[in-house]
Write the structure tokens for this entry.
Amino acid sequence: MNDDLRNQLQVLFFEARKVTDNQNPPRYKVQGKPKGENEGWVDYDGKKRDFYFVTYRDVIEGGLFRAKCLLNVKEDELRIRNLKYPQKYINKFNLELFGKNRTYNLDGEEFYPAINIKYSYDHPNSVTYQLAVYRLACENGMFVVYKELEKFRIRPKDVFSIDDFSFWCCHNLLILVFKQLEFDFRILKKTQVDKSEGIIIVNEFLNKKPSELDNKEKYI
């Protein structure tokens, strides 16, 4: 992992472990030290059944490999678009990455292929890796996740699975993502309302009495 990414993600690389309470039947949970070595262990939600444990670092390392493979970029070409996590105990995180040197031009605008990574110590039974598209639309940009193109939720034991890696190494996935994006744009353009026509529609709606609204309009 390059130094720039390491520094930005360091907050997630705290010590964590799986423990059991030795009861019958045993309950399992994750403990971590999000505030550092001297602050003691934090207990996350317990589980009745045993689970395969991976750390945040494992999940991120697996995500970086998938991103490099899918986007065909080097690690130092990956950029963090957003990193979210609860400040107190960091019981979960959401990391959005995109490849700065892979772009797709659509109607004069540039879009970047991206990957979304989610995992939680409260729910350590699954890891989410999602395909996405990033657009520099404003200060923070627009990040669109295509859930239908998601590699679903995978089991933690498959974070470093060769079989799962093979899915992410298929570059046709990028073609599929951007074709879907292009299709969505065309649909939106065909359904766009002329500005003057839009003003008329809005005014008509505002002048309606509550009794004249249908059920759908009441909730707009």
Notes: Confidence is low (pLDDT under 50) at residues 215-220. Residues 69 and 142 are 23 Å apart (CA to CA). The beta strands are 16-20, 28-32, 42-43, 78-84, 92-99, 104-106, 109-120, 127-135, 142-145, 153-154.
